[in-house]
## 1
Amino acid sequence: MNRLIAPAMLTQTHAKAGRLADLEPVAEDSLIGLIALVNADSRPDKIDVGVGVFRDGVGNTPILKVMKEAELRLNATQVTKAYLGSAGDKRFAELLRPILLGHHAGDDRIAGLQTPGGCGALRLGFELIAKANPGARVFVGTPTWPNHPPIINAVRLRIEEYPYYERGQGVIRFEDMIAALQSAEPGDVALLHGCCHNPTGADLSEDQWREVVRVVSERGLTPLIDIAYQGFGRGLDEDAFGVRLMLDACDEVIVAQSCDKNFSVYRDRVGCFFVKTGSKTKTDTAMGHVFHRAREMWSMPPDHGAAAVHIILDDPELRARWLVELRAMRDRINAVRQRIAAADPRLAFVGRQFGMFSMLPLSKQQVLKLREDEAIYMADSGRFNVVGMGDGQIDRFTAAIIEAMDG
Ligand SMILES: Cc1ncc(COP(=O)(O)O)c(C=O)c1O
């Protein structure tokens, strides 16, 4: 085992001193590996539905026009790049509150801080749980975003799986999910996707959210909601339904938010962490731990993206323009979904789902064959990004996957 991640070995004085040269190779992240494969393929008609970025009708991931404008304003008005502190841009976090928390925005038992993307917020959430309850088990849906388990492992919390999705049938295994959550003990964690589930696209209905919230609250679980695609599903408010319902019912809630997708600033690393406890004093104490961890890990978050989002949300005209561009992204996602769904009855489930991802009932061999024969790149699991391709590529894509499903 890798010495740098085996805590027991670090404390064994008799252990042979490790050298950097002794490190064993780490398995490559398969989605990052996929990007390299796509780049190396010189076929002009290749289709990359592997990577998780929004693409427009001609296959580009443009910078939003409103973001360009905000960056120009930022450039013209910023007079210093002095340190901001571990909380980052406080106004940024304040402006996000009504968008995410809705009628809970004014609740002083909820505090937040800017993080390096949704990943930073997730890491802080699990760090906080590990500090409060190192024995907590984290209930994680199967399948989930592949970066969840490594983040949870990094803070040494135990993972328990709950069934989430039946790939062949395109449905949520709701009864199994509830049964698994019923088996959790008070203080255990339920990791939930706020909307636009990655990798399946299968979101809980409002009634299903009500049931999950009931179980979480009755069992005394701590919900950690990962919301990385707010506004990509049904709308900003609709996509925050689960977050707000959970806040209605529970005293302790953690939310990890990413703005990297809905502001299209992926590489700028824009995210926000929120925590609620039963009182303002206890939330302040929890935030003390959060600041401490943030300081250890990244000291303070990168400023640029959050500063630009701050400018957009603080200006009514820019905010309105952002809503229009966000809507255009959402409309494209939903239109492409309908087009794929209409191509074959076996793909109808794609049209009932939300967000950028969906999972095809294809084996790994079929996925590899699509890569080789058709230059179509998707994750080994059959996850594909519905807006990974331009409009002109959709028919070729659906024809190829229908042929693959026909076997
Ligand atoms: C479900 C989910 N959570 C969190 C993230 C992290 O987002 P960020 O790039 O802002 O760290 C992603 C990104 O792909 C995601 O899909």
Note: The longest helix spans residues 316-342.
## 2
Amino acid sequence: MMKRAYKYRFYPTPEQAEQLHRTFGCVRLVYNKALEMRTRAYATQRRSISYAESSAALTEWKRGAELAFLNEVSSVPLQQALRHLHAAYAAFFAKRAGYPRFKSKKKSRASAEYTRSAFRWRDGKLTLAKMDAPLDIVWSRPLPDGVVPSTVTVSRDAAGRWYVSLLVEDPTVQPLPPVDTAVGVDAGLTSLVTLSTGEKVTNPRHEQADRRKLAKAQRDLARKEKGSANRAKARLKVTRIHARIADRRRDHLHKLSTRLVRENQTVVIEDLTVRNLLRNHRLARAISNAAWSQLRAMLEYKAAWYGRTLVTVDRWFPSSKLCSDCGQLTESLPLNIRTWQCPCGATHDRDINAARNLLAAGLADR
Ligand SMILES: [Zn+2]
């Protein structure tokens, strides 16, 4: 059965909010201390620290007087923080991500993950460890009947909204009947993505307008006096616009990824590692690293849900310059050239041609 996360807003009581803030703080502290320990061990002894070792260190920290307050929150989110750090290192060693970074109170999303032993699930009510009352969840869409969450993640975004995400084994997710279509998805220069079918998918509606509002709100913020009440108000406004842009972007990517996976048996995308993105300013400009990895993650799990195949191509060939009709390479193709003609007679839109080459490479790889 497929695992699926259901995310809802909730409204904590003042006591719950306080307990959660404290838990977020402890999660951040444990993550950062373990990261510091691992970094130091590697820098001074060329030694890698295992999850078990960092877990033993956590037990020591909780025994000391200085960090005794770690005992006031559930131990499970703290253990999970160590697991997340371990996963971040694994991704780093596999060259899928950069070196793990410290969590910042201001910039990182505050969250805490609870596994089965740290919450109670009864009659559709969720009670977290160290709390007496269940969370006041807004059930904006129904949870499938009879499911029991295996993991619960509580978070608070920069705009102050609280969320709970329930990971369940979902009986409603079934593989779709097979189809024989395939599509290449290219991070285009002029659009969000370009498909090998010739379709160009643009950014979410209102994004341009939201970005203009954001720029104005940021200018307003910069003009306010440090520490003033007006500055705090202006900051909240900036944060709210950021949150709205992120929400609309996520909705847009959800619709796009669902459609691509439903309509195609095979979806081919480029393996854009952080390294590739940094090298390739062209892509960095068109689609942000965050949006691309969000789209890729959605395609990955939806392909798994629906019995589809996602192929990632590590693309080092000059896909824009290669004619997708005859395979000839054109000599140079400056960025401002949007369409070009191959000696074979084919006329190409730069991005569509790249998406077609990506599709061919992905199908050849399989
Ligand atoms: Zn050609």
Note: The chain has a mean pLDDT of 89.
